[in-house]
Structures are given as C-alpha cells and as structure tokens.
Design brief:
Layout lengths: L31 E8 L2 E6 L10 H9 L4 E9 L9 H6 L7 E10 L2 E2 H11 L1
Antiparallel strand pairs: 1-2, 1-3, 3-4, 4-5
C-alpha cells in the first residue's frame, strides 16, 4: 500500500477557537507527524513528506503489530514525553531516544481495506 493516498489531516490556522457540535479540539503535541500503515505482518511509518521512518521508531512498529486488526492506516504524532507528561521535541529531535517514541493517534484513515477518510467525507457532505 503506497503512502501517497494517505496524507495527514493538517490543522487550519484561525484567529478564534471555533465552537459548535461539529468541532473537536485536541491537545497539540510537539512531535513528528506520522502515517502508520499495517498490512498483515508488515508495518511502515511514513512522515508527511513521504519518508519511510519504519526503522526509526521500533516501539510504534511493535505496538501496531500487537493490534488485533491486520490492516489499517493511522494518522498520528510521534512524540517523547518528559517526566512531566509534556512532549519534549528536543529529546525527539536528538534521536537519542528513538526506542521510546510513542504515537498519539488522531485518525484512522483506513481499516480492513476500507477507506475511512472518504467515508467520513461523504457522510459530512450529506449533513
């Protein structure tokens, strides 16, 4: 499965915080955006620029392989948390702790061969 069809959902800058039932607000973690692609026993990690970082973050690969689902594509943020629970970009960027990097998943883009992102877009257009 190529990474190209699965692009991260990038935030939109705004001067005020939107409100209403259609908005979801999330914590902004200071990390690297990743697309996690699992196909049976193979997991690949792609940056938003399309670089393959599978070998860089083994803990994320291991966690993806432990999932009961055999095929999925997840959009998330790779981070290292400090002892205070706050993401530490300097520790992440240093590459000294690649084996400790965690994924905070934002969205499931595909599951068991179904393109979830297109399905959500179609549902949103109907409302």
């Amino acid at each position: 499965m190529p990474a190209a069809p699965y692009l991260p959902r990038l935030p939109t800058a705004a001067k005020i915080v939107p409100n209403g039932d259609l908005w979801l607000h999330e914590v902004k973690y200071d990390g690297y955006r990743l697309i996690v692609v699992r196909e049976d026993r193979r997991v690949r990690l792609f940056t938003k620029g399309g670089n393959d970082w599978t070998s860089r973050f083994p803990w994320i690969v291991e966690a993806a392989l432990k999932n009961r689902r055999k095929q999925f594509v997840i959009d998330g943020e790779a981070v290292i948390l400090g002892v205070d629970g706050v993401s530490d970009f300097n520790a992440l960027h240093s590459r000294k702790h690649d084996d400790e990097v965690q994924l905070f998943a934002f969205d499931c883009l595909a599951l068991d061969g179904e393109d979830c992102a297109s399905y959500r877009f179609q549902c949103a257009r109907r409302t």
